[in-house]
Design goal:
By secondary structure, the chain is an alpha/beta fold. It contains twelve helices and eight strands. It has an eight-stranded parallel barrel, surrounded by five helices. Bound molecules: phosphoenolpyruvate.
Length: 250
């Protein structure tokens, strides 16, 4: 049985008081003994608070980004040793908003991934095609290139700590999710490629999440697919009732 993970990406939302309320409500609503990894990725300023609030619960905390160097004159950046010192568990790398608005490319993402692993932070590595690429029929080439560039040089042992999130860009924040079959097709392909590059053990164990307009209404049908091991959730992770329903998918 592969690990099942539901991760909430809060993006650039919530005040500190709202963050406290949301985390408290999510912890209170979790079914005991639920065999799932739950990850909350609030904005940086709330990571310390979040870590304190989840003490005694099974909820893990992730950052939304990190810088590729440990220390230095990089005004405004947050590094892996800083996150490690807060005992952050996960870090999102390669989100399409970082690729698009901050021009993060494969080489930079690869450096960030290696830095995360060096500091024992579990990367949630995002990839996915744009609408134009899907329409041009190059989805598989695009995601294979992103996979190779982002994960280049990682050993099989490293790969066992990585989580992949397939997030078609046209489905993020648009209300238009990929159908379960569309997501399954790409995620099966990704697992096959991972098997080719890093071996069958990694392919069988690595969690591949789906992200893109996941909601309480579509989570069950998405999670019924064999190669979908959880979800990376944006908008619907900002409301405790919606996120709790997603966490407790059937
Ligand atoms: C995301 O931010 O990773 C995401 C999938 O957003 P949304 O769920 O809002 O589409």
């Amino acid at each position: 049985m592969r690990e099942k993970i539901i991760a909430g990406n809060w993006k650039c939302y919530k005040t500190m008081d709202e963050a406290r309320t949301l985390i408290t409500e999510i912890i209170a609503g979790l079914e005991p003994n639920l065999n799932r990894t739950v990850v909350l990725c609030p904005p940086y300023p709330y990571l310390h608070l979040a870590k304190e609030l989840v003490i005694g619960s099974r909820v893990k905390i992730g950052a939304q980004n990190l810088w590729k160097e440990d220390w230095g004159a990089y005004t405004g950046e947050i590094s892996a040793p800083m996150l490690a010192s807060l005992k952050v568990d996960f870090v999102i790398i390669g989100h399409s908003e970082r690729r698009e608005y901050f021009k993060e490319d494969g080489a930079l993402l690869n450096a960030k991934l290696k830095k995360a692993l060096a500091w024992n932070l579990r990367p949630i590595f995002c990839l996915g095609e744009k609408l134009r690429e899907r329409e041009e029929g190059v989805t598989f080439q695009v995601v294979e290139t992103q996979l190779k560039e982002g994960l280049e040089g990682l050993s099989s042992e490293d790969m066992l700590k990585v989580v992949i999130a397939y997030e078609p860009v046209w489905a993020i924040g648009t209300g238009r999710n990929a159908t379960p079959e569309q997501a399954q097709e790409v995620q099966q392909f990704l697992r096959e490629k991972i098997g080719e590059f890093w071996g069958n053990k990694v392919a069988e164990q690595i969690p591949i999440l789906y992200g893109g307009s996941v909601k309480p209404e579509n989570i069950d049908s998405l999670m019924a697919m064999p190669d979908l091991d959880g979800a990376l959730v944006g908008g619907a992770s900002l409301k405790s009732q919606d996120f709790l329903r997603i966490i407790h998918f059937k």
